[in-house]
Amino acid sequence: MIVTTSWIALFFAGLLEIAWAAGLKQSAGFTRLAPSIFTLIAMLGSFGLLAFAMRALPLGTAYAVWTGIGTVGAAIIGMALLGEAVTLPRILCIGLIVAGIAGLKLTTG
């Protein structure tokens, strides 16, 4: 049960990483108050959930999955909402990251 809960916490930690990365962009280097506060709260939540997940999951797996979720999500947000280039090589690389995340999940308890 604790391992399942840890995976769920890790998933939400990854979502919060996406949120704080997007918030960081909107904060303009912490020069805008509301996005800066949002970013700091999302960071605290993300790190807290990551720390909880690491109580039951291996360090390398938890950290790689957390950063992978954040990386994929931030790339998708950038392309979908911020006008970043959508190219086949970028999509293929995102697919490789997703495959890596899935592989880590499948090979870890």
Summarize the structure.
With 109 residues, the protein is mostly helical. The chain has helices at 2-26, 33-53, 59-81, 88-106.
Question: How does this structure look, described?
Answer:
Keywords: Cell membrane, Membrane, Transmembrane, Transmembrane helix, Transport. Belongs to the drug/metabolite transporter (DMT) superfamily. Small multidrug resistance (SMR) (TC 2.A.7.1) family. Gdx/SugE subfamily. Its main location: membrane. With about 110 residues, this protein is mainly alpha-helical. It has one domain. Helices cover about 80% and strands about 0% of the residues. The protein contains four helices and no strands. Helix 1 packs antiparallel against helix 2, helix 1 runs parallel beside helix 3 and helix 3 runs antiparallel to helix 4. The longest helix is centred in the N-terminal third of the chain and has 25 residues. The chain is flat and about 40 Å long. The protein starts with a helix and ends with a helix.
Low-confidence stretches: none
Give the beta-strand count.
Answer: 0
Characterize the biggest β-sheet: none
Q: Cα distance, first to last residue?
A: 11 Å
* Secondary-structure element pattern, one letter each: HHHH
Oligomer: single chain
> Which bin fits the share of residues in helices?
over 70%
Please state the CA-atom Rg, rounded to the nearest Å: 15 Å
Beta-strand percent range: under 5%
Globally, the shape reads flat
Number of domains: 1
Instruction: Let me know the average pLDDT.
Output: 95
Q: State the helix count.
A: 4
Secondary-structure-derived class:
mainly alpha
Pfam families: Multi_Drug_Res
Family: Belongs to the drug/metabolite transporter (DMT) superfamily. Small multidrug resistance (SMR) (TC 2.A.7.1) family. Gdx/SugE subfamily.
Main location: membrane
Transmembrane segments: 37-56, 63-82, 88-107
